[in-house]
Amino acid sequence: MEGTDAEVVFETRGLAKVYDMGEVQVHALRGIDLELYRSELVVLLGASGSGKSTLVNILGGLDTATDGEVFYRDRDLTKASERELTDYRRHYVGFIFQFYNLIPSLTALENVEIVTEIASDPMDPKEALELVKMGDRADHFPSQLSGGEQQRVAIARAIAKRPAVLLCDEPTGALDSETGVIVLEALDRVNRELGTTTVIITHNVVQGDMAERIIRLKDGQITDIRRNEDKKAPRELKW
Amino acid sequence: MKIIDLKMIRDLWNMRGQVIAIGFVIIAGVSVYVSMSSVADTLQGTLKTYYEEYTFADGFASVRRAPESLGDRLRRVEGVNQVETRVAASVNLEIPGFDEPVTGQIVSVPEGDQPRLNRLFIREGRLVESGRGDEVILNEVFAEAHSLTPGDELTAIINGHRRSLTVVGIALSPEFLFQLQPGSLFPDPQRYGVMWMGQRALSAAYDMEGAFNDLSFTLAPGASIDNVTDRMDLLLDPYGGSGSYPREDQASHNLISEELNQLAAMAFLLPMIFLGVAAFLLNIVVSRLIALQREQIAILKAFGYSDWAVAMHYTKLVVIVALAGVVVGTGLGIWMGGAMAEMYLQYYKFPFLNYTLQWPVVLTAFLLTVGASLGGALMSIRRALRLPPAEAMRPEPPPSYRMTLVERLGLQKLLDQPTRIILRNLERQWVKSALTVIGIASSCAILIMGLFWGDAFDYIIQVQYGIAQREDITVTFNEPTSASAVYEISSLPGVQHAEPFRSVPVRLKSGHRSYDTGIEGIPPEPYLRRIINTELQPITIPREGIVLTQNLAGILQVRPGDKITVEVKEGRRYEREVPVVSLAEQYLGLGAYMNLRSANRLVGGGSAISGVFLMIDEQYEDELTQALQDRPRVASIVSQDRAIESFMETSAESMLTMTFVLSLFAGVIALGVVYNSVRISLSERDRELASMRVLGFTRGEIAYILLGEMALLVLLSIPIGLGIGALLSRWSAQSLQTEMYRIPVILGSDTFSLAAAIVLIAAIISALLMRRRLNKLDLTAVLKTRE
Ligand SMILES: Nc1ncnc2c1ncn2[C@@H]1O[C@H](COP(=O)(O)OP(=O)(O)OP(=O)(O)O)[C@@H](O)[C@H]1O
Ligand SMILES: [Mg+2]
């Protein structure tokens, strides 16, 4: 997987992000050099405010860097226009957020469909729901689903377009551990079956055990990248 | 259907209360615009066709008596196309079953044929036959006022002789859409009517064989009316011509075109206010929607929806609301327009009416509405568009509050906690609060503007007929008569006071400005026909000089102290310089007044009078009119009260409808603004309010926070609305006033109270609706959802 023959999906060089708050400048990222490979599952750890979300948002084209470079394959995301970023997100990226962020006025199925409608090679929205075991709740509105169920719909929504990368910002943050395991299983399955490069942000060190690599951030810098030789299935995780 | 459109429809459904409230405001605006514009277009179009098809003359003139041969000379005047000479006579009428004085004008028509100009539309019966001297055709309004139909009879006193006439037809004429008795301002079809009689019969009865005393003419293509009237006057003067005048100065045409212009002006102004309010409502509703959907917008963008697609999503939503409003409003407008046109058809007595809805009207309604709506929503949509997706994922930072002015002044001890919340909130959202105030105030202003007309007319009538013109009856003679006629008439039964007047037809000139009118010569200290100044105090008519009404002075651009030229158009024509001594306040009509003696000196005759004003004992009215009618020299007897009464009757009815419709629509606006504002406050603050409920505040206290804020805004809006209403009234009075009407801006306290009451009622209804919602506030659900 690693080494010269592994296919590089993301590459960043000296990536920096500064939020200019008038009197103070917040350095959210200070020189990130990182490579992510095809089909790998990476867990991103770090204290609150260390810059995890900022990094993932830039990788996903939701935000732009202040300095440095970031490439998705040979696309230079730092130089991309808003239109190109939209196109990039539309075709290659799937997002999952801590608070699910489903559209409340649409049913589970419609929340998936709203994404497949604009994708180029999506899977059947029902199939995506089946994949996260939500097929029987397709016609429920978000308000009629529990947090874990909503998060699984959010996963179905993220994977239904067959994205090349899946970026998850604290997907289990609002869930109890049992429900969290179900959600992680869904992510793990998508990673294995579809070969989607997956980045999972978490505060939960235990979740690192399901990853191939564990990256630690502190004050906007990478402090440690560790390969996990003993990759566990989500079911084996306990927290 | 695309899922994103499905989302839009569900969003619309979720805010249906607000959408309906906005929809109503749009519907009100569009329907008023479409109905009034289409009616204005319809009436203009109908009038034009009517004038063309029935060859309404371009100009008119009358003379004392001229030989038929003059007609041929007139036809040869450069710029004249056709001339029709005729005999017109002012007569007193007796109608079976109606014992009040009725005067009429009989106009001659060719026997057995239509006149070439001002052709008649025969509604019923037929034209007069040749050789039948007793046949008349009645103008329809007049016939209807007395339920006369062909076959009925009436008596006329023509030239001192009683003649029995038979009605053979009922007709309409473009010349007499309104029958206005010379010198009166309102049509009174019961007491004044127009009728047509065979040329030969009327000439014979009126000693006009081989002669005429009235004519109308059309212009050759491209001819200028001013040049033609000047040339004609040269020919007419030797025969006692009082000056030819263009169609614009013809009484019926003048009145109808003014009414149509007013209609067109109103058709634009009112809807603009409605659409402005609708734009504001859409603004607050859409901006709230977009604030609420921050995260949904972020999600759509994160998953690859472009900024454009997101902007279109909200644009569509707005356009759908606007479109629905336009469609329903246009439908309603067409229906209302049809009904109004029907009403006007009855009122104006057109022979036909083609209700036309011109596409530009619908297109304008559509563009204005969509434009106003998008204009209102544009800022919010742009905010949605610019929202960076990463940013939007983060919850909106808590709004920043600060101490209000009241608190900073150290008065906080006077306020309890909920009241402080209200004040801080108002101060923080001052733009929204200000717009809400403007919205409510505009509904109040619309009401004032609608009600204002009633007040203004009341005041006019009170001033003009209560203070200035106090006569009960005006008697005019066929021609200037010896002053001793006053004493003769004074001795008739029931006459309490008689006052002579002398009217002299003149053209007043100042520089290049001129105006044709009559100078009224009256006693220096008149008791009945008093001239008043702006302080409503009677003024003494000076021995020398002339008093002008304010509007006439305005037309001539002169002030007291200036000199004007008076061209006398009676008898031999000549000019005199006369100083303007003072100005008179007069709302209805305009005029010039002189001392009776100087008026007589002006015409160079002895002391002659044209008529008398009478104050009478009502008990003797019938007897008196009988006595007056029997006098050969009496040309007309006009009863003041009756004229006012009949005017008030017709206008009160339309005023009431107008007031009702306006109140309804203004109520809709107030309701729409208050409901939407409170609804949005609730959605912005449901968490805060629910938290307070959790902390133990009662429903009443919660409602106080939300509705107290609105109550404060409503109370603030009302005086502002009354002020704006007064300004709008002034503006509409100014833009609608004419040479004939000067409209004083007088607003009664009843009007203010009614406007304030309607706004308050609308506010209370929306408060009750909101209170129900507040009571159902689901504490757990509100606190669970993350915002
Ligand atoms: N829009 C913003 N404006 C200003 N500062 C920001 C903004 N977004 C993030 N920051 C700052 O950048 C730093 C990194 O934020 P980031 O959200 O990436 O942290 P994180 O590692 O995801 O934290 P958490 O675990 O709490 O989600 C923080 O100090 C944060 O305050
Ligand atoms: Mg984060």
From TrEMBL, chain A:
Superkingdom in the source lineage: Bacteria
GO molecular function, one term: ATP hydrolysis activity
Domain ABC transporter: 10-237
A matching Pfam family: ABC_tran
InterPro entries given in the database record: AAA+_ATPase (IPR003593), ABC_transporter-like_ATP-bd (IPR003439), ABC_transporter-like_CS (IPR017871), MacB-like_ATP-bd (IPR017911), P-loop_NTPase (IPR027417)
One term under GO cellular component: membrane protein complex
Gene3D superfamilies: P-loop containing nucleotide triphosphate hydrolases
Keyword entries, A-Z: ATP-binding, Nucleotide-binding, Transport
Coiled-coil segments: none
Family to which this protein belongs: Belongs to the ABC transporter superfamily. Macrolide exporter (TC 3.A.1.122) family.
Full protein name: Putative ABC transport system ATP-binding protein
Species: Fodinibius roseus
TrEMBL record, chain B:
Record's bilayer topology term: Multi-pass membrane protein
InterPro entries tied to this protein: ABC3_permease_C (IPR003838), Lipoprotein-release_system (IPR051447), MacB_PCD (IPR025857)
Regions that span the bilayer: 20-40, 263-286, 317-337, 357-378, 430-453, 655-678, 702-731, 751-770
Main localization (coarse): membrane
GO terms (BP aspect): lipoprotein localization to outer membrane
One of the record's GO cellular component terms: plasma membrane protein complex
Protein name: Putative ABC transport system permease protein
Organism classification: Bacteria, Pseudomonadati, Balneolota, Balneolia, Balneolales
